[in-house]
From TrEMBL:
InterPro entries: Aldolase_TIM, TIM_sf, Triosephosphate_isomerase. Pathway: Carbohydrate degradation; glycolysis; D-glyceraldehyde 3-phosphate from glycerone phosphate: step 1/1; Carbohydrate biosynthesis; gluconeogenesis. GO terms for molecular function: triose-phosphate isomerase activity. This is Triosephosphate isomerase. It catalyses: D-glyceraldehyde 3-phosphate = dihydroxyacetone phosphate. Its EC number is 5.3.1.1. GO terms for biological process: gluconeogenesis; glyceraldehyde-3-phosphate biosynthetic process; glycerol catabolic process; glycolytic process. It comes from Microbacterium rhizomatis. The lineage of its organism: Bacteria, Bacillati, Actinomycetota, Actinomycetes, Micrococcales.
Amino acid sequence: MTDANTVTPRPVTIGVSLKTYFGHGQAREWFAAVAESIRSMPAIADGSVTFFVVPTYLQLHLARDAFAGTPVRIGAQDVSQYGPGPYTGEISAAELAEVGVSITEIGHAERRRLFGEDSALVAHKATAALTHGIEPLLCVGESHRGDPQDAAAATVAQLAADLHGAPAGPVIVAYEPVWAIGAPEPAPADHIVAVTRALRAALLADPARAGSAVIYGGSAGPGLLASLGDAVDGLFLGRFAHDVTDLATVLTEASALALSREGSLS
């Protein structure tokens, strides 16, 4: 029996988006190698580290099969704002849920820049996802580097606009300053901390977003979790995670962070 006063530490969340870097065969090999790598990681098995993978649409079944029997969550890189119907080329939230997708990436900087997506459209997509029990992986971040407090205010405002009118449910907010995506180094730790703490405060103030998490993306890699401490719930990785050994290093660091959080509450 769990004591009513017991506080459960937040899990450390690590995610990977493959974008469209991998072909079908390469993705199959990567999934198999990662699935083998995580077998020796008890923190993933017991849920103290949450790990998710976001492949292309055509790779969803490959990922689902490779990670069957594990707690690894499978995400989609986008979702239609529309339900099933006459929407050629779209993928509905209903169908994503049907094939086992539990997370969908929404509002990535590339979608906003290349395809003209704005916060109104992002909010419609968040609504579609939450309506079908899919957790939005909501990407937010300022375009140009500036004062951390200004960045915090801008991203909190973006968060509110991106979720305007969306039904209740947890979200994973990925703070990805656009100027840090693909850069040689992530944003400075003090900058990340200022923004992620503001985002977390905004989520905590909204009862509809209970259970939400704030993670950092944008040239994230080994060593970053330790420097950020409790200011983030985890990391969102990109090309760095293509190397399975490098990914395992970050997952090991996440396991250590999860263990330290458990120790601090005991």
